[in-house]
Design goal:
Helix content: 25-40%
Distance between the termini: 21 Å
Number of strands: 17
Strand order of the largest sheet: 2-1-3-4-7-5-6-8-9-10-12-11
Number of helices: 16
Strand content: 15-25%
Radius of gyration: 24 Å
Structural class: alpha+beta
Shape: globular
Length: 483
């Protein structure tokens, strides 16, 4: 897949996870070349959606649509309404065209998005701070031609309320074209945004701060949703919204590695929350079966993993998490616990010695997670495992009842150095060590775990693993512009 095709696949991530009903009528407001329209029309590549009756209309045609009398199950407009001067009338018109149980799905950029406070240019005027000032200078002269604008959340919600729409509000990170995390605005995530989000920008050359490093603080101060770069609104008249609290996307990877992870909430209690790992393409189904095998292998060596089962995402899951028999998704219970990453950070703040002792415990698990093909020696290579799992890291584990509980173990590599896995586990804690620990440094931890002699090798292997996974070589010209 070439770079331009891969960019389009990434852009489809904003709604490719959405549970559209088969046989529904869809109106897409935008252009026929848009990635989302292509995704809706696609019957072979996107097995998640089948037999949708999809039509496309330009935003400027909305007024004429009002007279058509047509009704739709889904009307979708992502960024397209922002080029209209009267967005309120456009939403009023579109809301009158959805069926009684229909959905109006809207995507908007936020004029108070974090990126704009950090120097990014407005997507329409291409100036800095225009949106923050509510376009006070941008369209102040008669000769200024209107090309579009961003809106704030409250303004958009007021418009939706005035139309009589009930709406579920989602915040999108980092933006609508590079979706990585989608959060419902009544949900507090346990993600470490500094590691999970790779920020992208309209004009990266003017950006002077990296926004992902303040997301955690914004959430703690109840500012995250107000300052998200973009919003997704799922609007209905009957209140029949989704049960989805969070979506994590890994679009842009190879087809067998691209997934959506969804947290479902059945509203009766937190015990009824279920996590779904949904493959973005057919090729991902095989990976789900591999994940079950990996979990079985790890359990055999005393590594605790989250319970998983294959099921059909269309089946109505009861509070016990039972699903249908068609293996299209992997389902797991929602674990209401901190990630090992968050637990170790908090521990380091309280007691450095306890932090390192618990890190020793983690490293010991990694070193003994498979059969030893070669024992540790003085050459710096360390233990060689029969099967290595590069994602045995604190980011992919919870800390529950005094032990580490792992999840999302997608990779298994034969004859793999345990030191490579230890390096990945330790380097993810670099921000914790550098900002909190006084006695321990990264160098001392590398020395402690026998990583120093071959440190360059582990750095290179880690870089190669990440670059291949994210297709960074193929995507370098694009990333260099937006990051």
């Amino acid at each position: 897949m070439d770079m331009n095709a891969n960019i389009k696949e990434i852009q489809k991530g904003i709604l490719k996870w959405y549970p559209f009903k088969e046989g529904s009528r869809c109106l897409y407001v935008g252009g026929e070349a848009d990635a989302v329209f292509e995704m809706l029309c696609d019957k072979s590549d996107n097995y998640l959606i089948r037999e949708l009756d999809v039509v496309c209309r330009r935003p400027e045609e909305i007024t004429a649509l009002k007279e058509s009398g047509e009704r739709y199950d889904y009307i979708i407009a992502i960024e397209s309404l922002e080029i209209l001067q009267d967005v309120s009338s456009a939403i009023q018109t579109l809301s009158g065209m959805i069926n009684q149980n229909g959905h109006l799905i809207l995507g908007f950029n936020n004029r108070f998005g974090t990126r704009y406070f950090f120097g990014d240019r407005d997507p329409y005027t291409r100036n800095i701070f225009d949106g923050i000032e509510d376009y006070r200078r941008a369209y102040s002269k008669k000769e200024d031609a209107f090309v579009g604008r961003c809106y704030d959340k409250q303004t958009l919600m007021d418009i939706l309320d005035a139309c009589g729409l009930r709406h579920q509000n989602y915040s999108v990170f980092p933006d609508l074209k590079n979706t990585q995390i989608i959060l419902r605005d009544d949900y507090e995530s346990n993600e470490d945004f500094a590691i999970r989000v790779l920020s992208t920008y309209n004009h990266a050359d003017t950006v002077f701060l990296e926004e992902e490093y303040i997301y955690n603080s914004l959430q703690k101060n109840h500012m995250l949703h107000s300052m998200a770069n973009a919003f997704l609104f799922d609007c209905t008249f009957d209140g029949g919204g989704l049960d989805v609290l969070q979506v994590t996307s890994s679009m842009g990877r190879a087809k067998d590695d691209a997934f959506f992870t969804l947290i479902h909430d059945y509203q009766t209690s937190s015990k009824c929350r279920i996590v779904e790992k949904l493959p973005a393409y057919h090729e991902g189904i095989k990976k789900l079966n591999n994940m079950l095998e990996i979990a079985k292998d790890l359990e055999a060596y005393g590594i605790s993993t989250v319970e998983m089962s294959l099921g059909n995402r269309k089946s109505k899951k009861d509070p016990d998490g039972r699903c249908g028999d068609t293996p299209q998704s992997l389902f797991m219970p929602f674990i209401n616990a901190p990630t090992a990453q968050a637990y170790l950070k908090e521990l380091a703040q309280k007691d450095e010695e306890a932090f390192v002792k618990k890190l020793d415990e983690f490293v010991n698990l990694v070193n003994n997670s498979s059969k030893h093909m070669k024992e540790d020696s003085d050459d710096g290579e360390g233990i060689i495992l029969e099967k290595g799992h590069p994602d045995l890291v604190p980011l992919n584990a919870f800390y529950v009842d005094g032990k580490f509980l792992f999840f999302d173990q997608e990779f298994s590599i034969s004859d793999y150095p345990a030191n490579m896995m230890v390096y990945r586990a330790v380097i993810l804690l670099v921000a914790v060590v550098n900002s909190i620990c006084e006695k321990y440094s990264m160098d001392s931890l590398f020395q402690r775990y026998g990583l120093q002699k071959k440190l360059t090798k582990w750095q290179q292997m880690d870089g190669e693993f990440i670059r291949n996974l994210r297709k960074e070589k193929e995507m370098a010209p694009y990333f260099s512009k937006v990051r």
